[in-house]
Amino acid sequence: MTLNLYFFQHDPLESPGYILDWAHDRGHKCELVNFYDDDMLPDIKKVDGLVIMGGPMNIYDDEEYTWLETERDFVKQCIQSGKKVFGICLGSQMIADALGTLVKRNAHTEIGWFKVRIDQKKLPKKFAGVFPDEFITFHWHSDTFDLPENSAGFASSKATVNQAFLQNDNVAALQFHPEITERGVTLLVEDHAETFENNFPFVQPRHEVLGTDSFFELNRKILFKFLDKFFGKNK
Fold first, then answer.
1. Predicted local distance difference test score (pLDDT) of residue 190
2. What angle do CA 92, 144, 14 make, to 5 degrees?
3. 14-32: per-residue pLDDT in tens?
C-alpha cells in the first residue's frame, strides 16, 4: 500500500537520510515540510504517516522558533487521530511531550558513536528480529525524555536511560540516529566545530566521530526493517 508520508524538518543539516531512501524504495509518496523555510503545515486528512526529524533547538524555544507551538499541536492531533507518527531526536522529544511526559536536560551530552542496548522483552512481537541485542549507532543530543504512560521503552545507552519507546500501534520514538548518512555526520561535525572543544565524557573527539564508516550499513539495515514493520509492510 502506498502511503502519503510527510517529513518535518527543523534544520537543513538534519535531513531524513536513510528514511527517505526507504520511503522511495517502498514506493511511498513523500512531502518535505521545512520549518526553517516557513513551509506550511499539511492538511492532516492527507497524512498517512508523519516523520519528525531532529534539530538544534529545544522543543520549547518558542520565542526564537515561532512555529514550534503549532508543530507541537499538529503532532498531538496526528497521534490522537491514529496517524502513524515516527520521531527521531528532537522528533522523539516532541512525541514524548505530546503524550504528556517530561522532556528535560540529560545528565550528559551524548555525541558520537555509542552502543545502545535493546530490551527484546519490551518489544511487540511484530518487531522480533529487527534489532540486535546491542549495536553501535549515532547520537547527537543534550536533552532526553521520561517514558510516557503506557509506552514500551526498549532501548538505553550508558549516557541515556531512555533511548526509544513505542506506544500503541501508531507511535515510535528514537533518541538515536540510525537514519544518518556519512555525509550527514560530516556536515554536522563541520558546522559544530565548537562542540568538540570541551572534554565531555560522552562527546567523542572529532576525528573519532568522522573516522569510521563501518556502522552506516548496519544502521541502515536495522532502520529499513524497523520502518517496514512500523508502517505495516512486513517483508
1. 95
2. 50
3. 999 999 999 999 999 999 9
Cβ atoms of 57 and 34 closer than 8 Å: no
* CATH label, 4-230, candidates 3.40.50.1390, 3.40.50.720, 3.30.565.10, 3.40.50.880: 3.40.50.880
* Of 133, 179, 172, the residue nearest 156 (C-alpha): 133
Instruction: Read off the pLDDT of residues 33-74 as tens digits, 9 standing for 90 and up.
Output: 999 999 999 999 999 999 999 999 999 999 999 999 999 999
**Alpha carbons 111 and 188: distance in angstroms, whole number:** 11
Name the one residue in this structure whose C-alpha cell is 529545544.
58
Which pLDDT value is given to residue 135?
Answer: 98
Percent of the chain whose predicted confidence (pLDDT) is above 70: 99
Distance of CA 15 to the CA centre of its chain: 11
> Is the CB of residue 201 less than 8 Å from the CB of residue 108?
yes
CB 85 within 8 A of CB 79: yes
Whether the CA torsion 206, 145, 156, 153 is positive or negative: it is negative
Q: What is the mean pLDDT of residues 144-172?
A: 97
Take residue 154 and report the three cell numbers written for it.
Answer: 526498549
Q: Where are the domains of the chain?
A: 4-230
Residue count (the chain): 235
Q: What is the mean pLDDT of residues 156-179?
A: 97
Largest CA distance in the chain: 49
Decide: residue 225, CB within 10 A, 0-12 exposed, 13-18 middle, 19+ buried. Answer: middle
- Taking the C-alpha atoms of residue 78 and residue 98, their distance in angstroms, rounded to an integer, is 10
Distances (CA, A) of 41 to 51, 100, 105, 152: 13, 22, 28, 29
